[in-house]
Structures are given as C-alpha cells and as structure tokens.
Amino acid sequence: MEIKIEKLVKINAKTLCLYMKVTDQFSAMLKDQDGVELQDYEGYVPGFMPGNHHGDYLILDIDIDTGQIMNWQPPTAEQIEEFIRF
Question: Are 62 and 15 in contact (CB under 8 A)?
Fold first, then answer.
C-alpha cells in the first residue's frame, strides 16, 4: 500500500545564490579608507565582478552563516584603475 506522509526534515542551508539582471543600470562607488568617495560608476557590470555575467548580471554566492561573498576574487590594481577611468 502506498500512502502519502509529509514530514519535516532539517537541512543545513549553506549558500544563497543571487543572480540579478542589471542591464546597463549597474552602479557602484569606490571609497577610500576614510569613506571618502573617489569615483562613482554607472554602466555595465565591471569585468572583475564574479561569474559569467556578460556585463548585464550581478552574480553573487553568499555564505548564509558568515555573510561573506564566496565567489569573490579581489580585483587587481589594473582592474580597479580601468574601472575608475569610466
């Protein structure tokens, strides 16, 4: 005999994956160590952002326990310099 029983099962949720379409509406601000704004940016998602975003998506994998972005790779100085030229 087959019966249907629903039960709760505990799981360990670990990662929140965010995939946001920002098509030409990405904006960011670069600040110095004192919180002073160095550069404003609007446009495509910069190339140093994680994921295969094609300039239109913001793709972040966030550890639920720590709040840390797991797929983040620190940009190089050259990438930041290119970013602030716009």
Answer: yes
The distance of Cα 43 from the centroid of its chain, to the nearest Å, equals 16
Residue 51 neighbours by CB distance under 10 Å? 15
pLDDT above 70 for 86 = no
Q: What is the pTM of this model?
A: 0.75
pLDDT tens for each residue of 16-52: 999 999 877 889 999 999 999 988 988 889 989 999 8
> CA dist 40 to 7, 50, 56, 66, 83, Å?
51, 20, 18, 28, 10
Burial class (CB in 10 A: 0-12, 13-18, 19+), 45: buried
User: 21, exposed or middle or buried, with CB in 10 Å at 0-12, 13-18, 19+?
Assistant: exposed
Q: Nearest Cα to 63, choosing from 72, 54, 55?
A: 72
